[in-house]
Design brief:
By secondary structure, this protein is an all-alpha fold. It has 18 helices and two strands. Strand 1 and strand 2 form a beta hairpin. It is globular.
């Protein structure tokens, strides 16, 4: 950067810029795909599992906005965003290692302090680690999004967000596909703790690379422009003025709210859907150890199947991430986003109706990847047009409230609905996990309608 003007990004610059987000997706994918088997193994019912997932929305609503404001006002020789990227990644890496070892950590604490942890001690440790993981990923993710308007010229924001979408897709594909690839190609079953260690290494190393190679404008006092300094405000001021940016901002936020109810209906419950609905494994939390052992091979197969579906889902996101950005530039963000959301509505209904057909479910997961590519890029591109210099972090942090907030609805009400929809079959208990897809489809349809109302 020279004279406060942002240099035009080349393809190589965009690929390098997006690498850190690729590593970040390793952490998110292990969190999304494998948290259900870990917590269920420690005794979590669908409703308790939903409550544990509250870590995501609460940390997203609190951590990202606060970190966004802090990063806007950070003045250091290392830049405004990079300290948060690095700290978030390293702490997340430690928590990723600890989470699947929660039972062992509970036993270790009992031995060290010479008292017996309660039966749910391992589940408590796991819940704490989930909160740490989510909080620290948010510490890194918000400032990373704020780097786009910080270092990329305005006319390239849509393309930059598409490259982030591309890295989200590719990172998720690699993270999700590694264990199934080793199982079915190399005949080696990668353990759940090993997959979390893989995620920890990928996230920390990729973010270290980003911090070393992205040349952020110095945020020392003397280097901040008068316009940026004038626009820096407290969190309360930023929240108050957020909706005054434009009437369209409220519409974009409402669109995000319903979009992410729909997204989280799939992300939170898909692995359980794969295990208990597609493959018919009953609720194992109340069964004896001997009966649990009988279902363990099927559960492992179903978990690998879930990873394959997420890999397919994110592969489609990866393939069409750049075309989505190109099409949005040609036809407008709004039109492309509406079509993408409607494709996901069809996919959700298909998964719910063909719930016991693994091939059909995987095919509909692929279709929903089109919507995911758009969700990862175009709402941020729409919002970035209204951001004032110096407020990038706070605006992106506040915008994240409308991503994190809807998850509370899914983690509580949708989880409760599933917990109440009991299926009894041959003495075994199961749940109607497909209900989450019907609820998600309705919310995505509302989101598409609201998108139509936005004026570009």
């Amino acid at each position: 950067m020279e004279n406060n003007e942002l240099k035009h990004f080349t393809t190589a610059n965009f690929l390098n810029f997006a690498l850190g987000f690729l590593g970040l997706q390793f952490a998110w994918q292990m969190r999304i795909i494998l948290s259900a088997p870990v917590t269920e193994g420690l005794g979590a019912s669908p409703f308790i599992y939903g409550l544990i997932w509250l870590a995501g929305p609460f940390t997203g609503m609190v951590v990202q906005p606060l970190v966004g404001v802090l990063s806007d006002n950070t003045k250091s020789r290392f830049g405004r965003r990079r300290p948060y990227l690095l700290a978030g990644a390293l702490i997340t890496a430690l928590a990723l290692w600890a989470f699947p070892n929660s039972a062992g950590i509970s036993d270790f604490i009992s031995n060290i302090f010479h008292f017996n942890m309660p039966a749910w001690g391992g589940l408590l440790i796991a819940a704490i680690m989930i909160w740490v993981i989510d909080a620290c990923i948010n510490i890194a993710q918000g400032p990373y999004r704020a780097l786009v308007p910080d270092v990329v010229p305005p006319e390239q924001h849509s393309v930059a967000n598409s490259y982030i979408s591309l890295s989200i897709g590719l990172g998720s594909v690699i993270a999700a596909a590694t264990a199934p690839f080793l199982k079915y190609v190399c005949h080696y079953q990668m353990s759940i703790p090993a997959q979390f260690i893989m995620a920890a290494l990928a996230f920390s190393l990729a973010m270290i690379w980003t911090c070393m190679t992205i040349k952020e404008k110095s945020s020392l006092k003397s280097d901040i422009t008068s316009e940026e300094e004038e626009n820096k405000k407290s969190f309360a001021q930023s929240l108050k003025e957020f909706f005054l940016l434009s009437p369209e901002v409220s519409k974009i936020c409402t669109m995000q709210f319903f979009t992410w109810i729909g997204m989280m209906c799939m992300m939170i419950f898909f692995t359980n859907f794969a295990i208990h609905t597609v493959y018919g494994v009953p609720d194992l939390t109340k069964l004896s150890t001997e009966i649990q052992a009988q279902f363990l091979p099927i559960q492992t197969t179903a978990t690998n199947y879930s990873s394959i579906c997420f890999a397919i889902f994110n592969l489609i996101c990866f393939i069409i991430a750049i075309p989505i950005g190109v099409l949005a530039g040609k036809y407008g963000n709004k039109k492309v986003h509406i079509i993408s959301l409607l494709s996901m509505v069809i996919a959700y209904i298909g998964m719910a109706l063909f719930k016991t057909n693994p091939i059909a479910v995987a095919s509909f997961m692929a279709l929903s990847g089109i919507g995911w590519a758009s969700v990862c890029a175009l709402p941020f591109a729409m919002l970035s047009k209204y951001i004032k210099p110096g407020t990038e972090g706070s605006v992106m942090g506040i915008f994240n409230i409308f991503i994190a907030g809807p998850q509370v609805f899914v983690c509580t009400l949708v989880a409760w609905i599933i917990n109440q929809s009991v299926i009894s079959n041959g003495g075994f208990i199961n749940y109607h996990y497909e209900y989450s897809f019907f609820i998600g489809a309705i919310c995505l349809l509302l989101s598409a309608f609201i998108t139509k109302l936005i004026k570009e």
